[in-house]
Amino acid sequence: MKKIKIILSILTLFSYFISVSQTEKDTIEIKIEPKNLYLKSVPDYISIKFDLESNNERFEITGTDFDYDIRPNVSTVSRLSVNYSFISFSFRYLPKFFPGNNDNDLKGKTKGSSFGLTLNFNHWVQELKYGKVTGFYLENSQDYVTPWIEGTTPYIQFPELKVTSFRGATSYKFNSNFSLKAISTQTEIQLKSAGSFIPGLIYSYFIIDNQSNSINQSSSQRSNNYEVLANFGYYYTFVLNRSWYVALGVSPSIGYNYTDLLTRLPDENIHTNYSSAVYRINGKSGLGFNSERFFGGLEITAFRSSKEDENNTINQITTYNAFQFFVGYRFNAPKKVQELVQKAESRIQL
Predict the structure, then answer these.
(1) 253-282: buried (b, 16+ CB within 10 Å) or exposed (e) per residue?
(2) What is the dihedral of CA 209, 210, 211, 216, to 10 degrees?
(3) 199: nearest Cα among 256, 251, 247
(4) What one-character-per-residue DSSP string does 18-47 give?
(5) Which candidate, 252, 234, 89, 225, places its Cα nearest to that of 167?
(6) Torsion sign over Cα 79, 231, 283, 195
(7) Which pLDDT score, from 0 to 100, does residue 37 have?
(8) What is the predicted pLDDT for the residue at 124?
(9) What CA–CA distance (Å, rounded) separates 265 from 279?
(10) Residue partners of 215: CB distance under 8 A and separation at least 6
(11) Where are the beta strands (DSSP E) in the chain?
(12) What residues does each domain of the chain span?
């Protein structure tokens, strides 16, 4: 009888240790991640974003005896983007049915489109863009055409002038509580006000070519341009309540440009090259609404870049001012997409 009691006691004690051990194991396995009070991710949704922006872009080239204000014949630009987690694809195009995009008789025809890819991680942001625009006109044609009648006299046009660009930017966001995704791709929601210093490197390669098939053109030029800039940006988002926010940002840049110029003449081709310092400032402000499913807002963007050649004989200024309206909706992401992206994100800790 005593042996039976001893055995039962041992079994009871053994079962007790087993239960304690299992409880500790469960406790270890069930780890509750601390909730981020500043950000809310929306990993179950793919967002579709559509925006319209006014286009006020100009390229001013000045020298000792000339001043050219060259612009594309575009007043409104559209963009469609698909965003999920840290990945964003965008397509930018020129809708011809908007007023100001179809006054071809006076300013000529402009065609263009661009594609973009953005990888936005916790700290690192990588952007890649490709674009092409064909067809420009001279805004200050009245300085070179007489007599000039506003609204009747056609502007001087450059229908074959083509700009092809390849651009990239690599940036680092210092404050992990600030979300660039919340104000750019809307794949996160900013819950509390925060800002961050975001330095980076901007690099571009673009080609400007005015060669045409016209028999009246006796000469033409093509320039290959290489540009690298150091960027020092700071952005801040003021959260007004759970859904509304105000975003502000400024990004000054300084860098270097190298141009390889080919001048095509009837008898020969002439190669020249020059380099220049580049100074740029970019500012942005916006008001947005960001809920669980719907988002939208208004943004104002201002951009100015200037450079002079090494002999200080040619000065080029590029300005861009735009008013943007955007709206979007979040759809449920397929399980397979969620699994693939989450697997990739877990391996890339940036």
Answers:
(1) bebebebeebebeeeeeeeeebebebebeb
(2) -170
(3) 251
(4) HHHHHHHHHHHH---PPPPSSEEE-TTEEE
(5) 225
(6) positive
(7) 85
(8) 94
(9) 33
(10) none
(11) 39-41, 45-54, 56-62, 67-72, 76-84, 87-93, 111-120, 124-138, 157-172, 188-190, 194-209, 220-239, 244-264, 269-290, 294-308, 315-332
(12) 1-29, 41-347
Amino acid letter, 87: I
Q: Which residues of 188-213 are buried (b: 16+ CB within 10 A; e: fewer)?
A: bbbbeebbbebebebebebebbbeee
39 and 189 Cβ atoms separated by less than 8 Å = yes
pLDDT of residue 229: 97
pLDDT at 311: 67
The reported pLDDT for the residue numbered 313 is 67
Question: Rounded distance, CA 302 to CA 93, Å?
Answer: 20
CA–CA separation, 22 vs 25, rounded Å?
5
Return the pLDDT at 4.
44
Residue 310 is predicted with a pLDDT of 67
- CA distance to 20, 58, 135, 163, per residue, from 281 (Å): 63, 15, 26, 22
pLDDT tens-digit series, residues 175-210: 999 999 999 999 999 999 999 999 999 999 999 998
| Beta-strand pair 294-308/39-41 | unpaired
Cα separation, 95 vs 115, whole angstroms: 15
The residue ranges of the chain whose pLDDT is under 70 are 1-35, 100, 310-313, 346, 348-350
Rounded to whole angstroms, what are the CA distances from 203 to 121, 206, 227, 350?
Answer: 20, 10, 6, 21
Length of the chain as a residue count: 350
pLDDT at 105: 85
Question: Dihedral sign, CA of 120, 121, 122, 125?
Answer: negative
> 41-347 in CATH: which number?
2.40.128
